[in-house]
Amino acid sequence: MAITIRPHSASSARLLLGIGLISAAAVTVAACGSSGGTSSGSSGSAAGGASSASSPSAASNAGTSTSSVTISAKSVSGLGTVLVNQDGRTLYMLTSEKGGKITCTASGGCLHEWPETDLPSGATAAKAGSGVQSSLLGTVKGGDGKMEVTYNGWPLYTYIGDSAAGQGNGQGISNFGGTWYVLNTAGNPVTMKAGSGGSGGSSSPSSGSGGGGYGY
Questions:
Q1: Which of 48, 67, 158, 162 makes a 20 to 30 Å CA pair with 56?
Q2: What digits encode the pLDDT tens for the residues 10-50?
Q3: What is the spatial distance between Cα 173 and Cα 107, in angstroms, rounded to a whole number?
């Protein structure tokens, strides 16, 4: 039996093949678009989740309260009961600063040897600890421009020569225009020299950097 091939059969086959290829391409494009959308959505979701997760942390850090300065009264060997800070470090006043007049400044090197007792950022007043009268606590603009704590009008300092709490090595030192003394709970300078057991000192490591003492 003879087989007759019609001319249009090959043309029809090519047409069907072309339609099949176009359909396949459309399916592929649709699949890629769907995958891209899913990926974008996932990325957006992840980014949004990360942003949301970081927000509470930032808010928490911003709301952290600042530390404060606490002035208390403690017994220091050889000096009796005197003012100390929250770390137990002995506090001193300078006789030339009576009434809150600041003479200890950074320019002359005073604040290096006698660091100020400054309020931390955000604090408005020092706290009165054991044995201290809150009514005698105050502030004054210190030599470094910050708010310095005062007691009975005397600006308060620590001494670089005290390496630990309970020491009074700065007692009676004369430099930087005056003499340094510890304060009692009434806010008055204790002018006695530290006893032999109190690690007291009568000379400064930088005795040539300041003027003569005034006494009190």
A1: 67
A2: 455 454 555 555 555 554 544 445 444 444 444 444 444 44
A3: 20
Amino acid (one-letter) located at 50: A
DSSP state of 165: T
Token pair 């020569």 is at which residue?
161
Cα dist from 13 to 3, 20, 22, 24, 78, whole Å: 18, 11, 14, 17, 114
Q: Is the pLDDT of residue 82 over 70?
A: yes
E-strand stretches of 77-153: 80-84, 92-94, 127-128, 137-141, 147-151
By CB atoms closer than 10 A (0-12, 13-18, 19+), residue 78 is: middle
* Positions of E strands within 47-191: 70-76, 80-84, 92-94, 127-128, 137-141, 147-151, 154-155, 174-175, 178-183, 189-190
Cα(92)–Cα(79) distance, integer angstroms: 12
Give the list of residues 6+ apart from residue 38 with CB closer than 8 angstroms, or none: none
Place of tokens 């005290």: 162
Tell me the C-alpha distance between 154 and 104, whole Å: 12
Short-list 177, 158, 183, CA closest to 169: 158
Residue type, 123: A
Beta strands in the chain (DSSP E): 70-76, 80-84, 92-94, 127-128, 137-141, 147-151, 154-155, 174-175, 178-183, 189-190
